[in-house]
Amino acid sequence: MDIITAVGGDHDGLDGPVAARLRVKRLVAEGPCLRSAARQHFEYARHMFVFFTDNKISQIYDISDDDDGAEKPEGGQPQCIVPPPSLRPPPPRTSIDMRQFYADYIACLNSGELAEDLHQFCKPSGVVWNGTLMSVQQYADMIQASLDAISGLFFDMHTLVVDEPRQQLAARIEFTGTPVKPHAGGVPNGRQVAFAEHVFYWLEQGRISDVLSIVDWEEYRSQLAR
Questions:
Q1: Going from the N-terminus, what domains does the chain have, and what CATH number goes with each?
Q2: Where is this region: Disordered (predicted)?
């Protein structure tokens, strides 16, 4: 494993949480584990929120996007994770209150008024979500699909870590709601679900420009299969 990006650390003289995006490399041998055996290289991402007490790890929340059931690339070509954005423009001279900005963003998602208000939080030219450039409307449609599939879907901001000089945020969001439509491989069973997302954001001129997200859809599906 190696650290791709990290946010957090000491905050207000306390041992603040650290959010990290990790790259996990895996080598898979085809057939007997011999030097001559063909090998495939794969990568997957882990998003971890690590909490400290007295400079020692006290709690960890961990979500990965590894899926052993996913189709593997042919020919031994490496499967690589999406890198963080590069060549960032300088932050604005007058920074926004990033914590309040994110609280307002979550309030917008919970209000369901995406068409009216989401553009206030996103870069006008679009948002790069997990390596894919989306218009603000496409980004809104993706979020709306989850709202439509999970009745009463509520976004609860469990943890927020801010790096103002780099205009970067990391958040653990905890979701609750009752699925009413098939979604993310899960079939509704009438029960409420609770699952989480670990997500990193980059801002440009006070608007979200890039997002790297891992949602714990495995936990979501497991609750619907019970």
A1: 2-76 (no CATH), 98-224 (3.10.450.50)
A2: 63-94
